[in-house]
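User: tokens in, sequence out, please.
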């Protein structure tokens, strides 16, 4: 039940049943989710519900990606990649196709979520992503092909998840897969060596992509063009120091970038509070109450940062969101008066 096309070699029609040669598990193909150089991912169904099934005619690629997912499973307390469920071969029309089955992560991709929910979610999701990247890097891997299409936001409490581990590379080696807009080599700002700073450059470009959903073409390239784009965006200018350091490779770890990002949010909240207070002298009593509440949130966040390994991710997301919302509320209020 295969139909080849110039687009890809695995244009499997919906309804096709794939049975593993070794484990005999059966999967009904529902639709194609995406394809790339190393294979195609389908939405499929088995006896337990929906799954994501990736097939490839490159057995080495399948083995590599399966090893990555197995490594992810060893990272405790992380939501890096999808869970690995099955690995097998499919015999069809006299040929054998390797495939593996993983957890189906459902939800909008990063840019769609931001478009639906608003830019106030950007810092929350970036802090989550940086926490996950820190654990990935500590285990010797670099994600590589980090871009909004490979980031899904699940619910009900919004949580960012990384999918498509085809570009994940052992540190020290050359990046296996990349997308030009998020690649520091393309912008002339570094090599394609797999190291934490490579992923952190991509994080900065994901943030820039948030302000420019259709992206933009490289003209002069380098830091000059990117800095100009940052300065022209009201959203990005708030986080300019952090973004620029990531673009220049000045962060040694995702944890370091995350800490500075969090401190920048706290500092921005305090500045917005001061600006608002100086213009609202007739509301001193109310302002004091708001300041006290905000200070409590900031102090609470600092305590949470020190204890983050002992607290649930859902609670962290909610508390960070409170701080970010206060930041935006003060900022907007200050602009209006």
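Assistant: Sequence out:
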């Amino acid at each position: 039940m295969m139909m080849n096309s110039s687009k890809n070699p695995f244009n499997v029609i919906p309804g096709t049943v794939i049975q593993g040669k070794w484990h005999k598990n059966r999967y009904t193909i529902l639709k194609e989710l995406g394809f790339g150089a190393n294979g195609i991912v389908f939405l499929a169904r088995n006896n337990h519900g929906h799954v994501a099934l990736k097939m490839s005619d490159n057995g080495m690629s399948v083995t590599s990606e399966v090893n990555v997912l197995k490594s992810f499973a060893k990272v405790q307390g992380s939501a890096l990649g999808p869970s690995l469920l099955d690995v097998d071969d499919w015999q069809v029309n006299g040929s054998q196709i390797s495939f593996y089955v993983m957890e189906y992560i459902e939800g909008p991709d990063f840019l769609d979520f931001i478009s639906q929910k608003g830019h106030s979610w950007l810092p929350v999701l970036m802090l989550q992503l940086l926490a996950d990247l820190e654990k990935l890097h500590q285990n010797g891997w670099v994600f590589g092909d980090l871009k909004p299409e490979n980031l899904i936001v699940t619910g009900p409490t919004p949580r960012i998840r990384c999918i498509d581990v085809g570009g994940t590379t052992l540190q020290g080696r050359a990046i296996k897969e990349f997308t030009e807009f998020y690649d520091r080599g393309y912008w002339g700002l570094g090599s394609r060596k797999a190291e934490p700073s490579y992923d952190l450059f991509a994080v900065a470009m994901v943030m820039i992509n948030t302000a420019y959903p259709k992206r933009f073409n490289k003209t002069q390239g380098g830091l000059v063009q990117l800095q100009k784009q940052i300065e022209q965006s009201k959203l990005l200018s708030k986080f300019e120091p952090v973004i620029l350091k990531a673009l220049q490779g000045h962060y040694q770890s995702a944890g370091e970038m995350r800490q500075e990002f969090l401190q920048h949010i706290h500092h921005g909240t305090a500045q917005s509070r001061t600006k608002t207070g100086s213009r609202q002298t007739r509301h001193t009593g109310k302002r004091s109450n708001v300041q006290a509440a905000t200070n409590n949130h900031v102090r609470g966040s600092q305590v949470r940062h020190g204890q983050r390994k002992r607290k649930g991710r859902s609670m962290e997301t909610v508390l960070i969101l409170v701080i970010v919302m206060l930041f935006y509320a003060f900022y907007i209020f200050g602009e209006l008066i």
